[in-house]
Amino acid sequence: MRTETVHLPYGLVIVLTLDEDTCVGASVSLLSVEQKEPCAYCGEYECEFNCDLSQVAVSNAHEAGDVSLLDSIESDVRSRLRWNAAWDTLERFVVASACAGIDIGSSEFREAITTVADGISNELGED
Ligand SMILES: [Zn+2]
């Protein structure tokens, strides 16, 4: 088992845990969790708006007949899930690259990851 910590742009810190022989069980964590957006109701990053608190919010909006609130909730959830999925994919790519023998700490790899992270921010970021 080998653990590698790589500091990337955007304050991303990748902690990669790899089995020496296989990539089974390889994992990566982007410690800069502020990159991912949590559910506004339960605070979980993985929530697909199925937590009890978010369901109460939807139910309340339904009861109030507040269509614009429902639209806003739906739109926010969709963009949050897209955003988080993009960063999840980046995590998976880093693991796959390390498993393939690529030096994820190299300046070339860091530059490539920076380009992808820029793309995620530009395409999916709110600003
Ligand atoms: Zn939730």
Describe the overall structure.
- The protein is an alpha+beta fold and 127 residues long.
- It has one domain (35-124).
- Helix content is 50%, strand content 14%.
- The protein is built from three helices and three strands, in the order E-E-E-H-H-H.
- It has a three-stranded antiparallel beta sheet with strand order 1-2-3, with helices on one face.
- A hairpin with a 3-residue loop joins strand 1 and strand 2 (12-18).
- The longest helix is centred in the middle third of the chain and has 33 residues, at 67-99.
- It starts with a strand and ends with a helix.
- The mean pLDDT is 81.
- It binds zinc ion.
- Zinc ion binds next to loops.
Give the strand order, joined by hyphens, for the main sheet: 1-2-3
Give the total of domains: 1
Q: What is the 3D form?
A: elongated
**Major beta-sheet overview:** 3 strands, antiparallel
Number of helices: 3
Q: Can you give the helix content as a percent range?
A: 40-55%
- Rg is 18 Å
Uncertain spans, ≥5 residues at pLDDT below 50?
none
What letter string, H or E per element, gives the SSE order?
EEEHHH
Task: Kindly report how far apart the N and C termini lie.
Answer: 40 Å
Q: Structural class per helix/strand content?
A: alpha+beta
Total count of strands: 3
Q: Summary?
A:
Helices cover 50% and strands 14% of the residues. With 127 residues, the protein is of the alpha+beta class. It is elongated.
Topology, pairings included?
Blueprint: E1 2-8, E2 12-18, E3 27-30, H1 52-64, H2 67-99, H3 107-124
Antiparallel strand pairs: 1-2, 2-3
Helix pairs in contact: 2-3
The site of zinc ion has 7 residues, from loops.
